[in-house]
Design goal:
- There is one protein chain.
- The chain is α+β, with helices and mostly antiparallel strands.
- It has a single domain (8-205), classed as 3-methyladenine DNA Glycosylase, Chain A (Roll).
- Helices cover 14% and strands 28% of the residues.
- The protein has four helices and eight strands; from the N terminus they run ααβββββααβββ.
- Strands 1, 2, 3, 4, 5, 6, 7 and 8 form an eight-stranded antiparallel beta sheet that branches.
- A hairpin with a 2-residue loop joins strand 3 (74-79) and strand 4.
- Helix 3 (109-116) packs across helix 4.
- The protein is globular and about 40 Å long.
- It binds a DNA duplex through strand 3, strand 4 and helix 4.
Length: 206
DNA sequence: CTACCGATTGACT
DNA sequence: GTCAATCGGTAGA
């Protein structure tokens, strides 16, 4: 059975810490069709005005206004006609958010397989837009309060073994702005993580 | 109104 | 590895 949603205070911390701590948490989605979700294995932090890659770095627009709202709410935006889901962090007025890039699908697999039109579990939610398609997340969830614990929420892992997974830190995917902060976090060796999983600094053998 | 762009993905060489 | 589909958001005339 799912545990209750993480509270507001979880999101009211340094965004990089929130991004890292979201790894291992459960993302849940409930619709009339049923419950589904999985374990968060990849997330990236976007740091308000001090981060040129953040959508809100140059002020509020209609698109990014959810990021200026209270922490613990969703910021959902479209890129290349696909949806991406974020959890807003920091106090109201400071537009930071965590992009949830991938989950390990665990519950409601059949539902997610229908939505994604594939049976390959590894492909259900590996990448931010695939994740949204698998969970039926779209613009109607922009601004949704993730702490309420229905429709769309994040909670502790009820099956946690207590053993912390090894976490890798890297540059964010698709971010071209010239700054080197390592704000992407993912679970080492998880097959459900998107993009390159090579750790920065390691070299391919030749 | 028009023009340009992108925190992506899937198809392809 | 490369490439473009396809469209809402945004800036600017």
């Amino acid at each position: 059975m799912e545990s209750s949603a993480l509270g507001r205070e979880f999101y009211l911390r340094d965004p990089a810490v929130v991004a890292r701590d979201l790894l291992g948490k459960r993302l849940w989605r409930e619709t009339a069709a049923g419950l589904c979700g999985g374990r968060i294995v990849e997330a990236e932090a976007y740091l308000s005005a001090r981060d040129p890659a953040c959508h809100a770095s140059r002020g509020m627009t209609r698109r990014n206004s959810a990021m200026f709202g209270p922490p613990g709410h969703a910021y959902v935006y479209m890129i290349h006609h696909r949806w991406c889901f974020n959890a807003v962090t920091e106090p109201q007025g400071v537009p930071s958010a965590i992009l949830i890039r991938a989950i390990e699908p665990l519950d409601g697999l059949e539902l997610m397989q229908q939505r994604r039109r594939t049976d390959i579990v590894r492909d259900l939610a590996r990448g931010p837009a695939r994740l949204c398609e698998a969970l039926a997340i779209d613009r109607t969830h922009n601004g949704w309060d993730l702490t309420v614990g229905r429709e769309l929420w994040i909670a502790d892992d009820p099956q946690s073994s207590g053993v912390l997974p090894r976490i890798v830190r890297s540059a964010r995917i698709g971010v071209t702005s010239a700054h080197r902060r390592l704000l992407r976090f993912y679970v080492a060796n998880s097959p459900y993580v998107s993009g390159r999983t090579r750790q920065l600094g390691s070299r391919p053998r030749r």
